[in-house]
Every structure is written in C-alpha cells, then in structure tokens.
From TrEMBL:
Pathway of action: Carbohydrate metabolism; tricarboxylic acid cycle; isocitrate from oxaloacetate: step 1/2
Designated name of the protein: Citrate synthase
Keywords, comma-separated and alphabetical: Transferase, Tricarboxylic acid cycle
Domain of life: Bacteria
Pfam families the UniProt entry points to: Citrate_synt
GO terms for MF: citrate synthase activity
GO cellular component: cytoplasm
Residue positions of the active site: H281, D338
Amino acid sequence: AIDISKLRDQSGYITLDPGFKNTGSTKSAITFLDGEKGVLTYRGYAIEDLADKSTFLEVAYLLIYGELPTKDVLEKFRADIRSQMMIHEDMKNFFAGFPSKSHPMGQLSCLVGALSAFYPESLNPNQTDEEENKMIINLLAKMPTIVSWIQKKSLGHPVVYPKNNFGYIENFLNMIFGEVNQEKTFDPVVIDAMHKLLILHADHEQNCSTSTVRMVGSSNANMYASISAGINALWGPLHGGANQAVIEMLEAIKNDGGDADKYLAKAKDKNDPFRLMGFGHRVYKNFDPRAKIIKKACDDVLEKLGVQDPVLDIAKRLEEAALSDQYFIDRKLYPNVDFYSGIIYRALGFNSDMFTVLFALGRLPGWIAQWKEMRDNKEPIGRPRQVYIGENLRQYVPIADRK
Ligand code: ACO
C-alpha cells in the first residue's frame, strides 16, 4: 500500500514560509524598499522627489517603461490616454445589472476583467509591443471612467463623460463630482493631494495584489484578467481595504462615545480580535515613508477645505496614544499610508466604500509594470509547493457503509 507519510518524507526539501514573509518570488528592477530605514524608490527615484515634483502620469510612465518621460513623450502619452477614456456603450449593460449598493471593488474587478471581451486581441499571449501598449493605454484611460461610473450609479445620477481638454486628475474628479452640464473646478491643493495619493500608491513591490497580478499573468492570462485578479486581492481589509476600514473604525469609535483609549486597550488585548486599522505594516518596521508625505498633504487639504470633523479628532488621539504606547513601540507599529488616505478622501467627499477603488486607481501603473516585467523576463508559471499534513492513504468506504 502507498504510505503517504513516507512518500512525503522522501519527497525532498520544501521551503515553508507561510505568508512568504522572507521568500522572494522574482528579481525586479521596478521598486526598492527598505522597511527598517523607511526607504522607497521607483526605478531608482526617491518617493519623496516623485511625490513632490512629478504628476501621476509621469510616474506611471516611469514605472511602466523604466525612465522618466521627456516633455514630448509625456505629452504623447497623455494625449493617447485622453483619446481612449471613453468606454464602450455596451459596458453600460454591466452597470445596469449590479444592485446599486454593491461594493465598488466587486464592480471594478468585474468591469476591468470584462475589457478583455471588448479587446479580444489581448488574449494572444504573443502580442507585439504595439498591441501591449494599446492595453496599457486602455487600462490607464478607462479605469478612471469606470470608477466614476460606479460612483454615479451608487447615487443614481447620470454619468459624466470625459473631457478632452482636462488633465487626468481634473477629468477624473469632474466625472466623479461634476454634473452632465456643469463642469467642476477644484482647488490646486486638492489636485496636488490627489496626484500625491496616486503616486504614493503606484507600486510597492511584491505585495499581495501585485504578487497576484504576476501569478495570474504567469499562466499567460491576459493583462485585463490579471489586473482584475489584483483588484480582488486588494479588496481585503488587511491590504487595500484598510483605508475604508480605518474610517469605519473611527466612525464606530465616535458612535460608541468617542473613547479612543478604550479601543487602544482592545487592540492590545490578545483575546480580542480587534486591530487598530491603519497601523502596522508587513515590511515597514520603523515608519512608512508614504505616511509622512501624505500626513502633510492631509493637513494641507483639511486646512484649505476648512474641514471640521469629530472623526479627525479621534484619529489624532489614536495616533498620539499609539505612538507613545509600549505595546505599539515594542511591535514597531506605526500609522501606515492608509491611516491618512481615507481621511483625505473623506474630506474630498468620497464615500468610504470608494476608498479602496481609489487605491486601485493609484496601484494600476505598478500592476501593469510588474505584469510587463514578468512577461518581458519570460518568467515561468507560478506554482508554489506545500507540506502535506493530511490523512495517510485510506480505504475507500462506499456511501451505504459510512457512519
Ligand atoms: N493593531 C494591534 N496589534 C497589531 C496590529 C494592529 N493594527 N498590527 C499588528 N499587531 C500586532 C500583532 O497582534 C502581533 O502581536 P504579537 O507579536 O503580540 O502576536 C504583532 O503586532 C505582529 O503582527 P503581525 O500580524 O504578525 O504582522 P504582519 O506583518 O503579519 O501584519 C498587517 C501586517 C497585516 C498590516 C497588520 O499590521 C495589520 O493587520 N494591520 C491593520 C490592517 C492595516 O492597516 N492594513 C494595511 C496595510 S498597508 C497596505 O496594504 C497599503
């Protein structure tokens, strides 16, 4: 008889690293991060410089093609994207089918995956560079439009079409907050904060959603399908869903009397599953360099918009208390980028269930760059192993004899 336990023991060594805490899955030339020192670079450029001096599309180009674009190249890239922002009218049928309160992330993953139906040439794994570029432009151009349609549907409002004379962020915000015959303009502080937010989220090496994009793409699945899978991975509250979870946690604390210390104690109680959302990071164990930049943008936006929000007072109290609490100090738990991003999005008027969709919009160039790198490097299909701990070989029991 087959002895599974013996076979298992003879099957050679398997590296077991649950959660891949210390396992590299690839060599990559895109993003470098040092969690101890709080360093993050895209293609060798410091995140602080990029957030301060570049636009989101400039950074998208850098991540995807490896170099900062010249003025002419950037203008063509922008023009190509602007020309493809419309989505096929038949996509409206998908929107019609969703219940109006369905979560935006579910809608987004479905609609991005559905793009492959409208661009069937994407199914060919041996595409030319030109065909691949078409997918890249399509995704960068159409995702803001899809996101804005999701928002409009949730309100029962008619969609606002993209405008050819608007910048990328201005177009997006107008499609979200403008009306059909009433364009909306935005304070430069708001536009700047949106560029920064998207830039800071644009890539973060082999995190859960990016690894998913590479893993799905490694089977030669098309780029739309791979990114749709990444969107689903991002949805969870331990990853991209944290920005929504932060605001919901702050709301819950407010509705429970506003006692931040009570929730701090809950977070430290090992018998309580509650965690302080927006604190801690798998890789950053000193501080999250993105959080530093976004905290400043957050202060600027709140001051400019004159926002008074009791939820923000709770956020401040939590931040101060956690930073001086031994439990958080010992475990090197600091506010991450999502502690602040949700606060800005809320101040701008986004519903909390749209926050993770905005994260996805920012992460899109990173997913594209990582998918492209994986293909360009002709990486093998991803296929981890396991250590089997189940039953040894068992005698099959016919249904009539089972107890
Ligand atoms: N609140 C309270 N305690 C925490 C928290 C938290 N937010 N995060 C970690 N801890 C504690 C753990 O209970 C554990 O304590 P122990 O050593 O006494 O058992 C210790 O800190 C280490 O935690 P791990 O879960 O092992 O850390 P890991 O690296 O696996 O998890 C994660 C990182 C998932 C981000 C975690 O810190 C967390 O759940 N944070 C809240 C969710 C969140 O903000 N996610 C956003 C991540 S950023 C992003 O996706 C862009």
